[in-house]
Description:
Blueprint: H1 3-50, H2 59-69, H3 72-86, H4 94-98, H5 105-112, H6 118-129, H7 142-145, H8 151-156, H9 159-176, H10 179-192, H11 197-210, E1 224-226, E2 231-233, H12 235-253, H13 258-270, H14 276-286, H15 295-305, H16 309-322, H17 327-358, H18 362-386, H19 388-405, H20 409-422, H21 427-441, H22 447-458, H23 467-483
Antiparallel strand pairs: 1-2
Helix pairs in contact: 1-12, 9-10, 10-11, 11-12, 11-13, 12-13, 13-14, 14-15, 15-16, 16-17, 17-18, 18-19, 19-20, 20-21
Amino acid sequence: xxxxxxxxxxxxxxxxxxxxxxxxxxxxxxxxxxxxxxxxxxxxxxxxxxxxxxxxxxxxxxxxxxxxxxxxxxxxxxxxxxxxxxxxxxxxxxxxxxxxxxxxxxxxxxxxxxxxxxxxxxxxxxxxxxxxxxxxxxxxxxxxxxxxxxxxxxxxxxxxxxxxxxxxxxxxxxxxxxxxxxxxxxxxxxxxxxxxxxxxxxxxxxxxxxxxxxxxxxxxxxxxxxxxxxxxxxxxxxxxxxxxxxxxxxxxxxxxxxxxxxxxxxxxxxxxxxxxxxxxxxxxxxxxxxxxxxxxxxxxxxxxxxxxxxxxxxxxxxxxxxxxxxxxxxxxxxxxxxxxxxxxxxxxxxxxxxxxxxxxxxxxxxxxxxxxxxxxxxxxxxxxxxxxxxxxxxxxxxxxxxxxxxxxxxxxxxxxxxxxxxxxxxxxxxxxxxxxxxxxxxxxxxxxxxxxxxxxxxxxxxxxxxxxxxxxxxxxxxxxxxxx
Length: 484
């Protein structure tokens, strides 16, 4: 009779052990799936935005394998690709296409932990342990890679605390002026805690703003070609690229945080590098995520600076519809809308003038020229009504273009000189126009203009630059001079 309680106890114990084993396997599966999911996101972001080579690592090979077997994503990807094609998007793999929207995160997570991707998931864990995946070189994956109880696992949960202590030391180095010692510690900090987004943001700010605050732009002949960045860099410019790399690393590990995309697009590419194409690229990603209302405003400004006037106009009009009572919608957006309408009219006038100059039929040429002048007058009216510094500066610029066509060169130069002092945004463009008009009219350049002309001819060229890149820059410079 006494054997029954002992037998019951044994059965309960065995049942608990079995349940514990099942739960343990489930937890392990979820941990491994999370690591795999994060790697999928990082690889997808790299394909969609960065297009950086993984070198000798196996990321591309494994990512292709995942795309080949992720059958459930194919239809979703085709729908997303169709929308992207309508907007002029690139051809992407299924996972890269689907991961472009945060609304698909749940679907991608289900795929990452599904039996369908069991083989690629196992391969991921194997390659991650062997350190053969570039986008998995992160301490956050170590928990999924470690087996059993180890000293590492015992202290793994304290990594965020350790990251905070490291960040305190980073801040101390900043106040001491030890910029060079900061970089390695910042990387250590985010390795300990890859979700420490503020460390990425502040670190990139230190690199691109504080470290370069007292540095002058490196003259082009003194820069050197850096194959890692595909660019000519000096000491100051190298800090910009370090900031870019730092933010890109943060984006791979936190692809759903708009602040990283915003700082990369606006703070670095727009404000520091004047690379408006890349500014638009990353700000466009920022607004695809949950964001603050001021984020799209910087996108629309960058689109205007990049010559995408139609998109900027549509953006500002949509902003007014969404936030009709905001101060921006009442004061800023209407002026920006008028600016873009004027630039669209100017662009149309330039295209019509080009067509007129190429037309074989004199009557057709005159008709096109009349249309061009009408468009130019439309832009001129907008700038005149807009007034203030930006309206006045653009109005003077447009009047100078007309005077130049009439060969009234001195008057054109005088208007451009006045306009460039009205609006700093136009300084470089109008200074170049003044030099081109003087050369066209045979007017001697001043000493400062002669030096500026020399700098302009050297722009984009540096020692060690590959010949193909050098030729591309020269052709771009010639095209810009011809357009002016």
